[in-house]
Specification:
It is built from 26 helices and 14 strands. It is an alpha+beta fold and about 675 residues long. It has three domains: about 10-145, no CATH class; about 170-205; about 250-675, Cytochrome P450 (Cytochrome p450, Orthogonal Bundle), CATH 1.10.630.10. It has a four-stranded mixed β-sheet with strand order 4-5-10-7. The two termini are about 60 Å apart. The relative contact order is 0.10. Keywords: Heme, Iron, Membrane, Metal-binding, Monooxygenase, Oxidoreductase, Transmembrane, Transmembrane helix.
Length: about 675
Amino acid sequence: MAKEILKTHDHEFCSKPVLTGQQKLSYNGLDLAFSRYGAYWREMRKICVIHLFSSIRVQSFSPIREEEVSHMIGNISISALDSEPFNLTEAMMSLTSTIICRIAFGKSYEDGGSEKSKFQDLLNETEAMYEECVFRFGLDVRPQVLPLQLPNQDEPRLTSYLIAHGEYCEKTWRNRIIMVSLFFLVILSLPIFLWFLLKKNTTTKTSRLPPGPRGLPLIGNLHQLDSSNLQKHLWRLSQKYGPLFTLRLGFRRALVACSAKMAKEILKTHDLEFCSRPVLTGQQKLSYNGLDLSFSRYGAYWREMRKICVIHLFSSIRVQSFSPIREEEVSHMIGKISISALDSEPFNLTEAMMSLTSTIICRIAFGKSYEDGGSEKSKFQDLLNETEAMFSIFFFSDYFPYMRWVDRLTGLARRLEKNFKEFDAFYQQIIDEHLDPNRSKPEHEDILDVLLQIYKDRPYKTQLTFDHIKAILMDIFVAGTDTSAAIVIWAMCFVMKNPEALKKVQEEVRTVIGNKGFVNEYDVEQLCYLKAVVKETMRLQPSVPLLIPRETTEKCNIDGYEIPAKTLVYVNAWAVGRDSEAWENPNEFNPDRFMGSSIDLKGHHFELIPFGSGRRMCPGLDMGIANVELSLANLLHKFDWEMPAGMRREDIDIDHVLPGIATHRRDPLCLVPKPYAVMGNSE
């Protein structure tokens, strides 16, 4: 690899990075060693090679070198008379600095007393500044200036390559920031850790916590968690420590429940003690400091906000009133797939479903669609994606309360503030458009219309402000867009991997619908097996696998364990769906298990809790299920689906997921649609 970089691709790797210490001490790269590659560097190299480091020039300094080496040998000879150890390091440092000083500007500080000491201190400090920039990260740092294809590398990269001790390694600036952050975290938090250690040794512990893995001082179990598939990792821990176990996440204590029995204890038996929310940085900022419903703390305010949402926004009548919007948008998506099917090419179902659900939510929430908005749609989708990332990203301040500066150092605090301001401006623009007296009367009353009417009438004790309205809209966007699309994609994955289930659900849909070209929401109510497919999908892949974290309001006792107040609580709905005590063959996809069963999705049966249960259960359940069932029914009715060329059903990946609050497949689902010929229907 060294040969590849230093010879074969030397031209692409021959520039230098702009590093603070090097730039300052080289007068902004006016030297030779640290200047950027280009015409200036070539001319400077010519000057140095011809005038400063030519063979004749080097030979001309021979008397100086010989004289100074002879002088050092004399010093050693004198020291040898005492048969005492001689400091060769100091002697060589003095020798080389004296030779360089005489060669460079004809002056020696060898016997200069305080002047020599001052010069040496200055030189040491300068070398230290260079070392921080260079030797800390390798002996040769070369930023690649052109895209380059290295052997055994799939695609060009633009990054930094470092060569040290004969090894090739690649580092990113993000890794450096994390390394420095963790270093300062340990150093600055050491006194706090020692204080806690002292307190632990001098205080009698009276509480009995559930078991859990041993962690490290200060960071606890953070280093042990696999964030790439956290729900599965926590399930594996439950196999070792039991269905109820504890973790220490920095300065926070967390409780994890991984069985139907423990879920019932938390979500029903002790629902009141477990019904609050933790104060987490991203969630607090984007929910306008908890003015929404999902992330607000439990209390009188939350109860009134829930009443507003249940009565005015998510009632059965309200959900049904949006039926024409859902049917119109699903029909529009089916039309696009039909056009694509003419080419018999793979169709990106993931992209289509994300577009569908975001369009439905936009129309329901504020009567506007970005489906065909070009750059405007792209900008909105990017904004929504960034918001979803901010809700689930790791902030140091959430687990180390005195380390907020780390979030500023890594840029996360600035990134969060930027995202919040952009979405706030977006909401304000939509609100202003709705308040415009010249606005034409909409065909369908949207959610924002309802909220603005409450804002004007003020029928509740809590006086709604624009911030309250924006916070509720944020809940609807984040919860409604991601989750519904994810469930449909997972359902398609499962039925494609299980041909028998696929055949059964398609036969039901096509038998019930008959010659109709489109499945409407009335038809969906007759599709029992399709509903079973949705339930089985949400058992195996709940869209929010860890639900939204809760926090205990007071100390309580569960299964003989004492759970302190302010404990962070995760109910692993993904693990509950695989509880062998609640399900037969829990890892098998079998929709038939729900046929004739009374188990539903409304939180009454704790072996199936994709929407949670109890006081903090998702109030938008009916709206989400309506989106999922209508979309899935039409996809299965209108088309037969085949695998792309070269792929088998077994190749569909259901194990690798993207990290986040909602669980998506790591890779988009692309299938080949084949139009289904409906007998007696021209469509």
